[in-house]
Amino acid sequence: MTFALNIRAMDKPGVLGKITSYIAKKNVNIIFTQVYNQPDGNASTYIELENVEDIDEIIKGISEFSEVFEVMQSPTMNDVWGKRIIIIGGGAQVSQVALGAITEADRHNIRGEHISVDTLPIVGEENLTQTIRAVGSLPRVKVLVLAGSLMGGTIVDSIKEIKEKYGIKVISLNMVGSVRDHADLVVTDPVQAGVMAVMSIANTAQFDIGRVKEVL
Amino acid sequence: MTFALNIRAMDKPGVLGKITSYIAKKNVNIIFTQVYNQPDGNASTYIELENVEDIDEIIKGISEFSEVFEVMQSPTMNDVWGKRIIIIGGGAQVSQVALGAITEADRHNIRGEHISVDTLPIVGEENLTQTIRAVGSLPRVKVLVLAGSLMGGTIVDSIKEIKEKYGIKVISLNMVGSVRDHADLVVTDPVQAGVMAVMSIANTAQFDIGRVKEVL
Question: Which of A81, A172, A157, A84 has its CA nearest to residue A126?
């Protein structure tokens, strides 16, 4: 079972190392950690743990460090935000794909799914290449939708990378350039592309992206 | 200066602790860390460092751990995804707020800004309360837009919490319920709400949310 903790502590070097070393000694696996500085000057650590026998013991142990102010159990990121769809490209197309994806995600989330739709309107070969690479560093991403009019060049390399390394599915709008040839699915209507992105990952839907061989 | 590293390593207890302890000894501050398991069974660690004198020395040091396969410098999350706007509520409204926000973010991002628009269509008092609380655990969130027709009850408590604890601004649609009274700005048109959310955080825009005292 997976547990999540929110830890508020002093923001100084070594605190995260202390906490993670303590957890490692308990033979518990850390599957996700996130540390960031709060406006009040303290550090907020969110941590997800797997293979936990006694969560109360771990909470007590961490609370005893002098640098730690507060340890609270919380829902996991997956419980709250669930699977993620990332939509990037030009504003006109991104907003239309988002319209389809959000509307469809709403239909599944109301039946207990958790699907988020995250977007970044960004253009230019270099920007897009960098952004697609960075999708690999995001947790819980299942599908990337490329929403533009023209994409090719180095963007193709970054698509290959996230497909192979991270197993992320790629949907492309039907656009000019070579990106189309490297997508798992090509869709002409942006609203439809958003709807299908959600259908492809919702447990409450029946749609296997691997079985569609045509450009829609 | 802030640096970011992507580290691929064996997925076993203690590896993160080793890495963070090594970094702490160099007197470098870890401002953000994220660890997650890859489909191939290894662990991917993304780490942002502040106060670095010699990044090459740190890369070399981490590379020498026997559990580490690869250390690569990468752009920071802030360089790529920038400031975040989170939109939550019912699908109909979330999609219209997103339309406004994405279209406006596109106008600023094309001039060098980095603004992402992230959404979760989710309804129900308990779900919304939990989700709003969880916004506090997300990095780089500047504005939360509540996009629904009816919100009140415990949702108000979670709004107060993220405003006070994390300094996140809250924009609410003009809706039924008590949430409206606790927002920094209330807007009737959802597209307008999305546009104003972006304007309030873009360096390329001039709009101070604190100076608007009316319901739009």
Answer: A157
